[in-house]
Amino acid sequence: GGQILTGVPPANWFIAKRGRAVSYAMTGGGLGTASWVVISSLLVTTIGWRTAWLMNAALIAGTLVPLYGVLMRRRPEDIGLHPDGAATAPVTSVGGAHAGHGDEVNFTLRQSMRTSALWLITAAFMLHTFATNGILFSRVPYWTELGVSPRIIGVAVASDPFVVMLFTLVFGYLAERYPLRLITASGGVWRALSMLPMLWPGSAAVFAHNITWG
How far apart are CA 182 and CA 163, in angstroms? Predict the structure, then answer.
C-alpha cells in the first residue's frame, strides 16, 4: 500500500519530469525509516516489541491513512488540470503505439495482461521480494551471533535509508535520460553485490552491506 500511495500519484501528475517527481516522493520513505529505526529501538527496549508494534500500527492508521484521504489528489484531471502543469492534455497513445517526447503511452488492463513484459516483471519482483525479505529478517540475528554490538548494528541499519534517499534522487534524474529497465536492473545488481560483505567478519562489513544494499 505504501509504495502504491507514494509512487502512483506523482507518476500520474508528471510525464516529462516523472523520474525526479517520483524520486522526490520516495525520499520521504527513506527519511521516515531512518528516523523511526532509532525511535523503534528505543520503544522496543523500554516497552517491549509487542507494544511498540501496536504503536506503529496505531500511528499509521491514525495519521497516514487520514492524511492520504484528505490531501491526496489521484491525478490532475480529477481537478481540471493536466500533467506537468501543461495548458493542454498530452497526446496519449494506447497499447504500446509510438508516442513522441513528453507524450504518454498507456495500456488497458486487458492489453497489459497479454504482454510478456508484465509477467516477467511480476515474476522478477516476486523472486526479489522472497530473497530480500529473508535477508531482512535474518541479518540482525546473524550479526548478533557473530558478536557485533547492537549499537553498531543499529547505526549501520539506520545508514541504509540515508543511502536510499541519496540514490533515489540520483536514479530519478537518470530515469529521465536512460531506459527504465536498465535503471531498475542496476538496483538488483547492487542488491546482489551487497551479499558479499555478509561473508566478511567485523563491524566494517555490517556498514558495507547496508550501504551497498541501500
Answer: 20
